[in-house]
Structure to design on (432 residues):
């Protein structure tokens, strides 16, 4: 029943590069952030590939995928940068970035001021579009998740809203030693939140550091 | 003969908190950044204390202190926030933050547009005040250092100037899992510099991650 999330960020604190587009949904340089995961066997398995390493990175990827009964997501993550996807009235032909079989396989609650009909995808993913506060959206997601956890899928603004509302029980930050220089930051305005958490850091041979925050 | 430096920063990328003053030279919250070092036995030894732990943090502190023949330092680090210390004409009664026996014990070249007479302190530290470009200042420091390395003592603007000029051979970043929210950032405008370095990350039980950049 915990609310948790996992994010990857550059050493200078960016979760995505500048100028996200249909071709580069993570912005310029943003995909480099996630190389650590692409090399992990758990990520390859999940995405229909094979190979990869079975070390701490892979174990972390696997832990992040397990035990999730519902997701929360900001509208900008569902369609940011796409006309009729990221803001304003919907272009209802936009069904997310992930094709007809998205990697969620559970209900996903997309926060938006423009509700639309739910989208039932293949593989168990159902996108629900709700105009709700973080508290209200979390209640909906918890009901859908049953005994399992709720995970925030992103993006940064949504993650920040839930952190500010003090609703997050566990967060996992992957710190990647690259410098993007510009882009989307998570942290601004969150000073001192570490005091609410027990913090651990574990480095990986891939060069990333996994920093976990567990609610005290 | 390498040029190197070591800095500590918060998870949100700040090297010091906001509003540095005579009482809080590292700004609000800035001293929290350095708890990892205060707990290390090498730091305690260096500062006349005792005790502390002898793990990776202490080994890193010791390595950072060894083999240094000269320091480079920005004027703001020498006297920032002090009237007549940090900018403009000098108040020559200001002799730095560190008392009469500063923890350098070698020549320290302070970059300033307002040269003044050198200050010979106790314990081998001599502050030289030079109006020079990064290249010129490094030449001076290298001559003084002989076969030993030159270390940049700080602060952020000076570190950045030397990184931009591509003069740095080794940098050590201590990433501390706290969020300062505001303050002095190092990274802005340095995107992609990791490509010039081999990067390694090692975590410590203290919760910090040591990220090292070694010139390729």
């Amino acid at each position: 029943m915990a609310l948790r999330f996992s994010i990857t960020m550059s050493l200078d604190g960016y979760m995505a590069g500048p100028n996200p587009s249909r071709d580069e949904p993570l912005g310029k340089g943003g995909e480099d952030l996630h190389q650590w995961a692409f090399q992990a066997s758990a990520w390859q398995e999940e995405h229909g590939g094979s190979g990869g390493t079975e070390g701490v990175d892979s174990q972390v990827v696997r832990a992040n995928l397990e035990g999730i009964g519902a997701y929360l997501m900001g509208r900008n993550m569902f369609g940011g940068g796409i006309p009729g996807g990221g803001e304003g009235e919907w272009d209802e032909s936009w069904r997310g970035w992930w094709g007809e079989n998205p990697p969620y396989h559970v209900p996903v609650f997309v926060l938006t001021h423009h509700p639309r009909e739910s989208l039932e995808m293949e593989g168990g993913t159902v996108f629900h579009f709700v105009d709700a506060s973080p508290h209200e959206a979390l209640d909906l997601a918890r009901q859908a998740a049953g005994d399992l956890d709720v995970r925030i899928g992103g993006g940064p603004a949504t993650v920040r809203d839930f952190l500010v509302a003090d609703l997050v029980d566990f967060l996992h930050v992957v710190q990647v030693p690259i410098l993007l220089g510009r882009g989307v930051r998570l942290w601004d305005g969150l000073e001192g939140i570490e005091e609410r958490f027990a913090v651990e850091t574990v480095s990986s041979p891939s060069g990333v550091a996994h920093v976990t925050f567990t609610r005290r």
